[in-house]
Amino acid sequence: MMLTLALWLAGLDMDFRPPMADVAHPTDRITTRDATLDPTPRSVAGGPTYAAVTFHPAPAPALIVQPPASWLGHFPGRKNGGLWVVMQNGMPWPVTLIVDVAAGEQHLKTTVGLPPGPPQAFTMPLTATSPRAYGMQVGPPMPYMDGDQSRLVALTTEGAIDTQKITSITFSIPQPGAAQTVLFGKMFLIGDDGGLGGAYKGIVDRFGQFTRATWPEKIDTDAALKKRANAVPKADNATGLDPFGGRTDMPASQASGFFRVQKQGARWWLVTPEGHAFFSLGVNAVNHIDGRTYVEGREFMFTAPPAAGAPFTGTGDSRSDNGSQRDNGMNHGLWWDVYANNIARTLGNDFEAGWRKRTLDRLKAWRFNTLGNWSDPAFAGDKRMAYTVPILIKGDFNTVSTGYDYWGRMPDPFDPRFEKAAQQAVANATKGKADDPWLLGYFADNELAWAGQGPQGRWALAVGSLAQGPQSPAKQAFLAYLKKTHGDAAAFAKAWGVNVTTWDQVAEQNFKAPDPNEPHPAIAADYIAFLKLYAGQYFKTVAQTLKKADPHHLFLGGRLAVRTPEVEEMSAQYTDVTSINTYTDLPEHGFDVAEFKRWDKPVLLTEFHFGSSDRGPFGNGVAAVANEEERGKAYAKFVEAAAASGIVVGTHWFQYVDQPVTGRILDGENAHIGLVGITDIPFEGFTRAVSETNVRVGGGGAGNGGARR
């Protein structure tokens, strides 16, 4: 440790020979709050000395370091730099520390998990940062080994300080239930980036895999990649299914030649073109283009970054004001399609047909029966599995903001230009498909911003509509409803508790609509009515347009994510099946099962997953589990509960392939949520568990377990 420390310090920016505080030799500038500083320094054999600080049970016990005057003004002309501290967890379990660097009233904070074991070289950049600034949603795991030194870097810091005016550094533990001991060594101010460059350096190998970990599916040679990716999945022959995956072991109904939905007894089912009950077991994003990740500006993250013009590279620009990109950095320029590159290593550059065959062979062996949204449209020509088609409505129609607008603002369905755009989108989506029996149905848009964030988010679409000017069709529709409901403006003002005397005042731009409150129940009642009006107009417009263009296939709804009870109700009224994206342990924790039973309408759960962080990508998805083995258990629990609900007619897993370690170009998501890795090698344990569940739920075997790999 001593040698490592000396060598590491020698590599610091020598323009800034750092002043030092030494907790092991405290002065009156080192104090505690609900904590005890052991006055006897502890030494590590052949290494530095430490001071033991015991944090007692209290709301925020703390060690407080007030730097000497020599620290002030330490970074003239520099806006960044970092704090460097040697510390060691004195407990046999991880300890959570909050580090607060203050400059007067300014604060910069981070939360760090200090693992048990050897001393850690902890570094904290003295500027706000997060993995999002580096183009990914989740950063690499900490600590990591830098040679023989364990490094713990604060990847997320919040706040802002003047680094020339640092007045204190506080280390605290949030509400410990028992005494916790941490050993502190020397502290330095350093003139580099606080260790961020090292934390992200060389984290991706030439196969797109994380370099600092191992797992069963990780490979290190082209030969190993080719052998494992091309392995044929072993599967038992499915029995008791029609060609579309419908269950012939159950009573048949009318064969219409197309997929439809029907209630049989107390349960809703999809029905295949041949008239057999069908539970849609689908996978989203079955394509070979979702492995794209930006390289430009991040070349240091890759051990073998591709050059511009290299195969499987291109350029893009994902910058936008949408919530998905608002705080994302390194999000434009050269990208590398890691997944496609790996497929080509196993199948050759002209790989598309071979990849589709290999992929469909796997999915059928794993007993899936549906290609979910965002899948390669070319699969439609293979006639081996039901597929879905999105209707993406784009145009110059008015839009309404609900605040966060993760994928963009809400389309205004009252705008006549929206209806024209819907007609064009439907024409594009249905072209050549109206007579295809393998088409399950159509989705309308994806995860629209039906609500905002926070406790008042339910009303965001109504409030956003009223904030628009009098030219807004949505505003006009809301005003027409309010006038019809309340009559004159004075009655409206009294009902809402607002200070207006004319309707023109309500029609003005930036009208500030109130939150619902107990003295004025009319506000919530009017918001609810308008939200139903808004959602009804949207779904009715799309449904009528779609059924006119293609009367044979199902309208599967709008893939609802952020949503309100009003949009669910209107979807149930106007669509054949309401599609809901939910990331919960059980379906009933993601949507109101009882309401759909009351409406007697079917639901298709079109996105769910369970992720872990033990297979390369740093993120563990929206619904996280502890490890790879738990993913299969969680899948079984969710899908079996969905099938038992009586109203859910299918579940679609998101997604086929893991996301890139450094984040997808769309929004930086980088989670282990796939059936296969970025190398196109299946996760054998997980796919085995999935196969067994799919056989139980979808039929096709007498409990024989389906695919064995």
Task: Describe the model.
By secondary structure, this protein is α+β, with helices and mostly antiparallel strands. Helices cover 24% and strands 21% of the residues. It has 15 helices and 31 strands. The strands form six sheets. Strands 1, 3, 4, 5, 7, 10, 11, 12 and 15 form a nine-stranded mixed sheet that branches. Strands 28-27-24-23-19-31-30-29 form an eight-stranded parallel sheet. A six-stranded antiparallel sheet has the order 2-6-14-8-9-13, with no helix packed on it. α6 (416-430) runs parallel beside α11 (522-549) and α14 (628-644) packs parallel to α15. The longest helix has 28 residues, at 522-549. The radius of gyration is 29 Å and the shape is globular.
Concise overview:
The protein has 709 residues and is α+β, with helices and mostly antiparallel strands. Helix content is 24%, strand content 21%.
The strand count comes to 31
Q: Which value, in Å, is the CA radius of gyration?
A: 29 Å
Rounded average pLDDT: 93
Q: Which class best fits the helix and strand makeup?
A: alpha+beta
Strand content: 15-25%
Oligomer: single chain
* Major sheet size, sense and barrel closure: 9 strands, mixed
Number of helices: 15
Fraction of residues in helix: 10-25%
Tertiary shape:
globular
Low-confidence stretches: 1-17, 703-709
Our measurement of the CA-to-CA distance between the termini, rounded to an integer number of angstroms, reads 46 Å
